Amino acid sequence: MEVLMFALSIGTLYSIYLILATSMELEYGELGLPNFAKAAFFAVGAFAVGALAVRLGALLAGIAWEGEFKLRSYYYATLVSSSIARNPLIGLVIFIVPTVVALVTAVALGVLASYPALRLPGDYLAISLIAFSELVRIVTRNYEPLVGGTFGAGVPDFLAWLGSPWRELAKLCMSSSVAVCVWAGYYRLSTSPFGRTLRAIRDDEVAAKAFGKDVTRLRAWTMAIGSGMAALAGVLYAFYMGSVSPDDFTVSKTFLVVLMVVLGGRGNPLGPPVGAAVYLLVDRAITLTKHLIPMPFDVNYASYIVLGMTLVIIIMKRPGGIVPEKPPITVKIAPPLDSLREAAPPAKSRNVGNQLAYSHKPSE
Amino acid sequence: MIDVFVGALVYSNLLALLAVGLSMALLTCRVSNFAHGDFATVGVYAAHTASVLLGISPYACIPIAFIAGGSVSLIAFLLVFEPLRGKAELVTLMVVSMAVDMVIRYTLHVYADLAQRSLGVYTRQFMFRDFHFQVAGYTLPGVLIASVCTVLALLITLYFLLYRTSLGVAMRAAIENPSLAEALGVNVKKVFAVSWFLSGALAATAGVFLPFRIQVTPDTGWSLLLSMFASVTVGGLGSLGGSIVGAYVIGFSETLFSYVLSSIGLSTAYRPAVSFAAIIATLLLSPRGLTGFLSNGKRWFKWRS
User: Fold this and answer.
1) B32 touching A, CB under 8 A?
2) Residue whose C-alpha is closest to residue A21's, from A7, A6, A40, A42
3) Is B89 on the interface with A (CB under 8 A)?
4) Is B289 a residue whose pLDDT tops 80?
5) B245 in Cβ contact with B290 (< 8 Å)
6) Which residue is closest to A300 within chain B, CA to CA?
7) How confident is the model at residue B81 (pLDDT cuts 50, 70, 90)?
8) A308–B267: do the CB atoms touch at under 8 Å?
9) Which CA distances in Å does A110 have to A24, A113, A226, B181?
10) Distance, CA of A194 to CA of A7 (rounded, Å)
């Protein structure tokens, strides 16, 4: 039973990280735009749930609200959960409304954040985005009516009408299907003309402009899509955790997502799933084994040191990541004999000669 | 009011030392070094350990912190940034520096835990005891005079090193054009190693003054990073003189802003808003920063990458 719960929990967390890594892959891996405000967009989803779910649930269940939000939100979250157990429809509403609000807010913020991107070189864009992300965290941490500041906000269980293992299973199924949909959508984008244009902009912006690509619009689109993905992950994360705390969305979260993308392989669609899996494996392995070996310090620190070193070594020794980017297959693969003829130099040169002779013929 | 001014001046002095070092990293390896704040924390812990072990004032431990911070910075340069110099993209270098930051910061956390056990002193949330002196009826903290003297001495030495010695000429040449300097016989790696040592050492020196004003933890240096980047950006990217001016602009406006915040009853936690606003405004309005306005033929200001 415990093993099953652990597996369900890991699966849900993996799905959430996969969505985050995929959104970072789309922006940083494909377009080369370092969206280091990822934690803030992730937080937008979680905060939408934290701020709306309890209030909306209390309103729908007809529970009168008394006292300050920061002190009472956990209490009311339990009350709302028990009324959801009687009336599943409330659960549906408190899931859908925050999701819609989160998506709209994140997409709007993403488009807004893509405008400074036109003016700033890569690293300064990243610094301003990090600053923005920290500011979002600091404001929500100190403005208590939103999500309770340092107290955090309770989140009612929208699947409270299901029994214990089934509830977690349903959450896993939902998160993983969202993750698979997001990844499949990203794969479709990556192999489409849109994805190829993004990589063209990443590799040479001026050339892409010269070919008539609207870089501004593509950046805004990519940021909008990526931010929407991150907000979706935030919604799932809030319901998975059962509470929301602003201090969960520090720059370190963004860094972990970057780590997953770089570890997996920038620009390869398989990068995010591989990177997220490796990160989660290392992280959980350290968490599980830390009780076995007694250390005179907190082992969580050691896990961060190991992750940091891994990233440095990966970038220095294997810059492509575990699954490096391959040139995309955009045309039908030629039959094997064809490639042999291409590879043999004499045949190739003769071929070129023939072509030249042929092309000269009409003019003669 | 005098307290606010003293606080602003001390804070700006520290920020100036930190921003100059950050600029040097930016000039030599084109890296926006996210590990720079940790060099200051290395200085804090080096001074703390030395003052506990030797039983001397933390001010006397500045040379030890200077060497410790410089060595950590030098190791980071030799192991990571030198092999990647000129090969990796700007953003990749930044990601690497974030990883280096993570390694150093959490190593310091581990060190703080170990030191607390073996030395039996607090290694988190501690402060250094300062002396006070009286001037014209005001009681001023000793850190004010100490930080002003240290900053002036170090910055003047740095100026003479860069502009009056052959090492300084080589350093500036290597920054201007590494391959040309190499062709003319400058050992670019060695020259850059010296500037990285100095960058870390200046940061660590600034770090020694931190516990006189605030309670420090292994994350303190990291939390100053945004203000450092704001100073460098406001001053003009890659200009040493500019970053010093930027440091005083940011230091004073941040302190005044939090004074205003607390006097109108808001949390001073909104303080980073100043740095954020300064970065965004500078980059959008005048990307070359204050140097863009002020460069009227002065060499100290004009020197850019």
Assistant:
1) yes
2) A42
3) yes
4) no
5) yes
6) B106
7) very high
8) no
9) 13, 5, 8, 44
10) 37
**H or E segment at B141?**
strand B138-141
- Residue B272's CB is within 10 A of a number of other CB atoms, namely 19
Domain boundaries, chain B: 2-219
CB neighbours (10 Å) of residue A16?
23
List CB contacts (< 8 A) between B258 and chain A. none
Rounded to a whole number, what is the distance in Å from the CA of A102 to chain B's nearest CA? 24
Contact A173, A180 (CB under 8 A): no
Percent of chain A with pLDDT over 90: 29
A128 contacts B283? CB cut-off 8 A: yes
Reference A234, options A37, A22, A8, A49; nearest CA is A49
φ, ψ dihedrals at B176, nearest 5°: -60, -50
pLDDT tens per residue, range B129-180:
888 887 777 788 888 889 999 999 999 999 999 999 999 999 989 988 888 9
Q: Identify how many contiguous H helices and E strands chain B contains and give both numbers.
A: 15, 2
State whether residue A329 is helix, strand or coil: coil
User: Which tokens belong to A314?
Assistant: 């990966």
Smallest CA–CA distance, residue A272 to chain B, in Å, is: 17
CB within 8 Å of A8: residues ≥ 6 apart? A165, A168, A169, A171, A172
Q: A127 vs B279: CB contact, 8 Å cut-off? A: yes
Closest CA to B134 of B277, B299, B2: B2
ipTM surpasses cut 0.95: no
8 Å CB contact of A311 and B96: yes
Q: Is B285 exposed, middle or buried (0-12, 13-18, 19+ CB in 10 A)?
A: exposed
Mean of the pLDDT values across residues A77-93? Answer: 87
Specify whether the CB–CB gap between B5 and B144 falls below 8 A. Answer: no
The beta strand positions in A196-352, using DSSP E, are 243-244
What is the DSSP code (8-state) at residue B218?
Answer: T
For residues A268 and A51, the answer to whether their CB atoms sit within 8 Å is no
- Residue A220 neighbours by CB under 8 Å, 6+ apart: A110, A111, A114, A115
Chain B nearest CA to A141, separation (Å): 9
Asked which of A247-256, B63-72, B209-218, B276-285 is least confident by mean pLDDT, the reply is B276-285
Give which of A40, A36, A16, A17 is closest to A27, Cα–Cα. Answer: A36
A169, A173, A179, A184 alpha-carbon torsion, rounded to 10°: 150
How far is residue A22's CA from residue A11's CA, in Å, rounded to a whole number?
Answer: 16
